[in-house]
């Protein structure tokens, strides 16, 4: 989902990658300390797949759509959703447990593959690196991150969004992550995000997609996470 609002380095990010990316720290702190729960990343992938007609909403289930999926992360999500028949009542398997953790890891791996972030050894006592502690991610393209976070904040402050930014704001609203964009006025930003999630402040076509498809899909996926903690934040 391309957008002229994003930096040239991030123009081709998929929606789940973009969610994880904009939640990175402005100072380049490890992305892994701000990782979204898997449900929000799965919801982002499903939104993109549905909008592209690679996935179809068949009422009580999801079905494979006519448009082929080329992105490996999105293809993995489709395969996972349809592996059990695509029933909406079975969404929980896609966002909890080991599969949920894989969603997080795969999304972060894509940021590394794109050169936007890199893996660093976890350090103990500030100087000793031990493989047993695994690795963290650190943003490499900090200027691009500043640019993209500012673009989203501008929309939260009142600027009209294009489709890509609007979809991201809807996800941040439902995931209760508007605060993580550090808006100047959190109350105003939260109201703005809620209005966009209701289909306001966007073009008619985008509003119809949000009301008919996007907000219901995100709400359904996140509902599958009720009373379930997939992965905790470090802060």
From TrEMBL:
The keyword Membrane applies. Keywords: Golgi apparatus, Lipid-binding, Membrane. The keyword Membrane applies. InterPro entries: GPP34-like, GPP34-like_sf. It is a peripheral membrane protein. It is found in: Golgi apparatus membrane. This is Golgi phosphoprotein 3 GPP34.
């Amino acid at each position: 989902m391309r957008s002229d609002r994003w930096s040239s380095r991030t123009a081709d990010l998929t929606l789940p990658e973009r969610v994880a990316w904009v939640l990175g720290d402005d100072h380049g702190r490890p992305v892994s300390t701000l990782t979204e729960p898997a449900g929000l990343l799965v919801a982002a992938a499903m939104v993109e797949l549905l909008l592209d007609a690679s996935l179809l909403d068949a009422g009580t289930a999801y079905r494979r759509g006519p448009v082929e999926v080329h992105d490996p992360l999105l293809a993995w999500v489709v395969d996972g959703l349809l592996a059990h028949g695509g029933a909406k009542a079975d969404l929980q398997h896609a966002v909890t447990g080991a599969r949920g953790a894989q969603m997080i890891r795969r999304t972060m791996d894509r940021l590394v593959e794109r050169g936007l972030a890199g893996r660093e050894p976890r350090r103990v006592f500030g100087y000793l690196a031990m493989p047993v502690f695994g690795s963290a991610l650190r943003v490499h393209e900090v200027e691009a991150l500043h640019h993209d976070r500012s673009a989203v904040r501008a929309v939260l402050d009142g600027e009209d969004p294009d489709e890509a930014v609007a979809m991201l704001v809807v996800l941040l609203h439902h995931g209760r992550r508007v605060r993580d964009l550090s808006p100047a006025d959190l109350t105003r930003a939260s109201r703005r995000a809620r209005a966009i999630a209701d289909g306001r402040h966007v073009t008619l076509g985008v509003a119809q997609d949000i009301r008919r498809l996007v907000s219901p899909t995100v709400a359904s996926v996140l509902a599958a996470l009720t009373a379930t903690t997939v992965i905790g934040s470090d802060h």
